Amino acid sequence: MTEEMERDDRVFLMGEEVGHYQGAYKVSEGMLEKFGSRRVIDTPIAEAGFAGIGAGAAMVGLRPIIEFMTWNFSAVAFDQILNNAAKIRQMSGGQFNCPIVFRGPNASARQVGSQHSHAMEHFYATVPGLKVVAPAFVDDAKGLMKAAIRDDNPVLVMESETLYSLKGEVPDSDEVTPLGKARLVREGTDCTIISYSRMTHVAIEAAAALDKEGISTEIVDLRSLRPLDEDAIVDSVRKTHRCVVVHEGWPYGGVGAEVADRVQRLAFDWLDAPILRVTSLDVPMPYNAKLEQLCMPQPGRVIDAVKRVVNRGVAQGRN
Length: 319
What we know:
Elements: H1 2-7, E1 11-15, H2 31-35, E2 40-42, H3 47-59, E3 63-67, H4 78-85, H5 88-91, E4 101-106, H6 121-125, E5 131-133, H7 138-150, E6 155-160, E7 183-186, E8 191-195, H8 198-211, E9 217-221, E10 224-226, H9 230-240, E11 243-246, H10 254-266, E12 276-278, H11 289-295, H12 299-309
Helix pairs in contact: 3-4, 8-12, 9-10
């Protein structure tokens, strides 16, 4: 964000505690001092208000970054995102663009209760006019953010609350990760695991365990949920002939269901087994730590799903 604000003086950051407190997760640390209060703007607790201000600012030529302290709170601003940011280009006949980024932590954290643990991406990925990304790695977090800020459409950046502590190398160059392009995390021959955000790391852990049992898995990290990289998905499934989709949302509908539909429509003749999904359980997230972990996808559940599709039997009692 700092690099893009240095590059383009139309970019500004707005949200709760982004300035003097330097962000609830210190994402905007040092930015108020560097850019001042006209470009790093603390807001009241009023998501609908500052989301709407951001959409209006984007319509008249600025490039706002709107931070939700958590995507759970974006439900209060859903009307502004759905009915204004997403639709203004179409409703104005192309007279107005809305180059705005909505960003913040998404999905579960650690014992924050059901009202703060929603995986919100599938709500927004259904909306025409929005782009939705969910990085799993630090270099993609930077590259996708740059792409989102430079895009002339509203882009929602879903940052996993539990990945803020992840460390890794990022390019010093002005490298942009294109929207709509998946990442092949590892190659394999027996089954494709499709995931994104924190669940990519769950898939990596499961794949390492499966290697020891002689099962080779390929992992595709979607990175971008809308637009979706159909080619990367289909190419992998044609190679492995099996598919398991892992995501943190609920099982009813959602990103996993969309991916499964694309696979069965576009790669049906290459499938040797049904497509399986590994999701959170179909309940509000419990506060209790053990129940919370039970609800979320764990490596053991991914291992069991892969074994089912490769006909190697199912291990019992995994979590």
